[in-house]
## 1
Amino acid sequence: MPPPSGIELQPGAQGLDFANYFVSYGYLYHQKDMLQDRGRMTAYRNAILQNASCFEGKVVLDVGAGSGVLSIWAAMAGAKRVYAVEATSMAQHARRLVQQNGVQDVVVVLEGYMEAQELPEKVDLIVSEWMGYFLLREAMYDSVLAARDKWLKPGGAMYPSHAFLRMAPLCSALYGSRLAEFDEEVSQWGEFSSWMLDGNGINVNGLTGFFAREQQEYLLQSAQWCQLRQSEVIGDEFSVSEFDLHTTTTKELASFSTSFRSVISEDALLNAFGGWFDTDFNGSAAEPAPKPVTLTTAPESATHWAQQVFLVHPPLLVEVGDTLEGIVKVARQKLNHRLLWVQLTLTHSRAGVGQVGPERTLNFRID
Amino acid sequence: MPPPSGIELQPGAQGLDFANYFVSYGYLYHQKDMLQDRGRMTAYRNAILQNASCFEGKVVLDVGAGSGVLSIWAAMAGAKRVYAVEATSMAQHARRLVQQNGVQDVVVVLEGYMEAQELPEKVDLIVSEWMGYFLLREAMYDSVLAARDKWLKPGGAMYPSHAFLRMAPLCSALYGSRLAEFDEEVSQWGEFSSWMLDGNGINVNGLTGFFAREQQEYLLQSAQWCQLRQSEVIGDEFSVSEFDLHTTTTKELASFSTSFRSVISEDALLNAFGGWFDTDFNGSAAEPAPKPVTLTTAPESATHWAQQVFLVHPPLLVEVGDTLEGIVKVARQKLNHRLLWVQLTLTHSRAGVGQVGPERTLNFRID
Ligand SMILES: Nc1ncnc2c1ncn2[C@@H]1O[C@H](CSCC[C@H](N)C(=O)O)[C@@H](O)[C@H]1O
Ligand SMILES: Nc1ncnc2c1ncn2[C@@H]1O[C@H](CSCC[C@H](N)C(=O)O)[C@@H](O)[C@H]1O
């Protein structure tokens, strides 16, 4: 979608906006998509309104306020003051909603890039919906952690407080359809190639391998958005990483690796891994939430995040009880730090047999 | 499509690349789309190979060489030297094709932004495929005209030499479908609005008008890519502008307005205007092409550009012989100068009646 006519980026935000990151957030259309996500809404609403005692009389910062919904709930929960910071001109709609919902004496909407804001005071609590695909895509946690370090009082609370990134082996329907697409593209290149020579006198055969590699990267080595069914999961889910938002640093999130182990639960063709996240709202150590809330995006949870699928090509034949062990590496892409690289190094072993096949290294982009 | 892993922008290009303009050109997939466009290919191939006498022994510059196809043809036509300048890493594939087609002694591929190149000599002829939707979208003519002013010898030739931007009144099938989409979005907002109040305690009614305006801008006031049939054209085509590439300036192209007049040829509902372009390859005044070529993108011509459709909402009832008169303004968008604004000011008159209805002003974005 094109930028709405009104959108103007704050100076300073532009350099960080290589992928036109902010543009879509300037649309009500896109904010509405998020506001219609019932899993997301229920979790944040309960986290705030069912833990109103943690908000009462507090100074709250909403990082990336969008339409202002979290700020309005914080005000309803009894906050004394809420700073709602939003980079795009959506801030102007947030201001309208704040007014229309009668919380204008509590909520102050600030239009601008979080990192460039000066607040008149430190805050007791930061609330933010910053999660992207595979938790870390969009790298908005950068802004949330910077806001925490600059504006949160010592001992203050983060909502959400914890985040968990998980994966599991899959037998996914996506595999067959992407592979068919890949084959189709490669065969179309063949026809194109003949036409270039016969019709245009130009030999493009030397590019066939490059074209196939480009399509492979795009169709088979880029993570796919997908609504997984539980039946596609064929082994233990494993943890890729866990963060306490009160203490984690940008550096830890920007690049890390973890070893994993997963036991296969059925005889199947392992043709993918799935990835998703959960976030918990537990409050702070000093002031735990009386009603902790979890927002899950696991298979069948039906949020707008759905899950990410990483294809394993060629696939592996696995049996109940087989073990997968290896290392997952997650890092930002160099050219656009809001996007990710994921690398899986993998060995497959079977009781009584030992290692099955060679170690595999799989590389993926999350674009 | 995401950027291919290899793509790195030249320093300097980045500031001009707000819309990630260059990213897609780094893909063979996208270059293939252009190479498969038979109308485009036939016109350029004939313009070069059927006018080989104009290329023989000449020094040629190919601005935005992509896969290098035009440079290879120029070499086949007998050019002494061809400089193929390409901003993206596609230049590396161009170098491979040049080699594989045996013209490496003639064609020098230079990877980098045209404006940042130093050539060892001035050139006799510039060839370039720079046209975007509605001719001017992408604003690549900037780079072509800058190259002309800096590198073309006095009296040198531009291929293409002339460009024509045209419009005509339509009765288009697109109108009904876009209007239905608009109505659907507005009615969905209504349901969303109720759910926000009942389920989340937040009143979003105040944003209804803003949402409708946003959807209107997107669905009804943005030009649409469309393959028009001749039967959708219901009146005289008119000229929006004509350029001689040898003399036109960036300033003239960046913003202009023209008056127009179109006589209606059938009783119909005028619900849109169509826009398209032709380019001519006539050679220079000093050395006219012996076989001039025209590349047309008019309705039914089936190039990848197709046509642009600008909806007229609400539509106008017109009769055979009615006259439309007015002014078309074309300008770059402020935020992204590669995109366009189009404004039509319009009066409708009928013999024996005079002016029918008030003057209308219609605004469109080409995104
Ligand atoms: N550094 C930053 N400063 C200010 N706003 C930011 C930001 N990074 C992201 N944002 C904004 O954060 C929002 C994230 S989407 C969440 C919107 C809203 N809080 C809700 O829950 O519905 C977007 O509107 C985006 O424009
Ligand atoms: N200022 C500039 N400098 C160098 N290359 C440019 C440029 N502006 C656009 N380009 C390149 O110009 C190409 C236009 S598409 C045409 C490609 C090729 N000449 C063909 O006819 O098939 C793209 O590959 C784009 O990357």
## 2
Amino acid sequence: MGEIHLRPRQIIIIVVIFVVIILFITNTRQNCEFPKYYRSSARKDDLPTIFAITPTYYRPVQKAELTRLSHVVMLVPNVHWIIVEDADHTSSLVTNLLQRAGLVERSTQLSAKTPTQFKLQGKDPNWSKPRGVEQRNAALRWIRENTSKDDRGVVYFMDDDNAYSVELFEEMNKIQAERVGVWPVGLVGGLMVEKPILNNENIVTGFNAAWRPERPFPLDMAGFAISLDLLHKRPEAVFSFEVERGYQESEILRHVTVLKELQPLANLCKEVLVWHTRTEKPKLTEEEKLRKAGKSSFDGIEV
Amino acid sequence: MGEIHLRPRQIIIIVVIFVVIILFITNTRQNCEFPKYYRSSARKDDLPTIFAITPTYYRPVQKAELTRLSHVVMLVPNVHWIIVEDADHTSSLVTNLLQRAGLVERSTQLSAKTPTQFKLQGKDPNWSKPRGVEQRNAALRWIRENTSKDDRGVVYFMDDDNAYSVELFEEMNKIQAERVGVWPVGLVGGLMVEKPILNNENIVTGFNAAWRPERPFPLDMAGFAISLDLLHKRPEAVFSFEVERGYQESEILRHVTVLKELQPLANLCKEVLVWHTRTEKPKLTEEEKLRKAGKSSFDGIEV
């Protein structure tokens, strides 16, 4: 076999075929079955980083809760998950969970112990003392130290027991600079839906809250997210142990926004994309019997 | 510019470069951040189809529960999700949810109403009547009609309120032909962990159940999955309204296996990958007041 003679036109044709094949491969290849509505916006670089702050504490259902919550974080590539444990040190339970979920590179593990005087005691009902204050403030401090005011980002408070849809995070991507996004929350405050009320010009004029509607911002922690630049502009915006029950949301929001500046999301507040679910405390009566007999059902097993 | 002369060796070099570039593109490109442990087995065609059967019924937390459960299904590409509603007809709530999750092509929506005499009445405690019997049997019927005995598959009963890890489904992929896989379940039967007990040869000899340990198979519905071929071999294996409380698992298993044939999974039953969580019934006192006044917090909104 001798030499092959190629004309310039033939070389151009070969190059075009080569480019077409590469474009075809890069466009059709899908490694996993993301829902289509999400795929279109999955170019992570174009998206703001969503800092999702999750205060948590040890109890029998903790790993179960964090495991199912990790799934929505896995599905939304622009979330940076900040888990803050109410403890002196971070735990191997959370470290292992983040490792197994493949989330080490886009998560931060912190600990911040609630001061003893603010801790729930024995039979205190769980609403009698503010919860998550120390932990959320530790996360806010971390965010202010590790981002700059020019970074595009959103800060969201994501409790470990609520139910969050993937679509909710799509909505957060739409939050404008220097604004706070708001949306309805299901199953909270004694209502099926607690939601912002809009006027004809789609400006938020109030909320439909039935519980303490006199609060400046009568909404749930799951019902808003804050543009990152606002946290840099208002370093005084934090949570406080000094405010009345139900006023934590109002406490941070009063520093960063006013009612009419809130940005209504989730199809102009007509869709529920997050639910205030609560998990039952499991009855461990048989475990208690074992314990009294010096035994355990879970020796060496992390539950 | 004249012709370009290429020797055979030069053509081979160009082809090799071309192939290397294509291999590089196809190997490095990742559309989403799946955890690494999962990526290795993400070649869907090599995997059995896991038929996950979820009985469900309308209540305020239903959409919240199914939404967070849909995330683990989205993350595991070889799951086929069979949702069976306790109703005369399938609902648009479930249809919309499957559509938005991008799961239409790998799910089946069924309905099967529990006969009135077996339905929980008013203040019956939720364990007083068997639940999910009619729905799980409808799903088993669908599976037997729509698969053949030579298909590779696994059948799992996935309730809508438990917490499931992605790793659990990796374990199910290991279930051998004509076998039933078993593993520990967290927070069930009054214990932190209810688990199979193995002897020195890693054969299952019993369970550590404290509640009704005399049952033939004293384990939870979340603690086992059945190789598809067994369901074709034993068409009589179904659930029954006629058995005592806590005996549904034993009822189906007695037709398809014996204790010593159970296949221990989850690191020889030393890891907890699924938890029997329960979601609180939300207090909707304010909604009730609105209802009495002829109002609602969720007109036109699906919660």
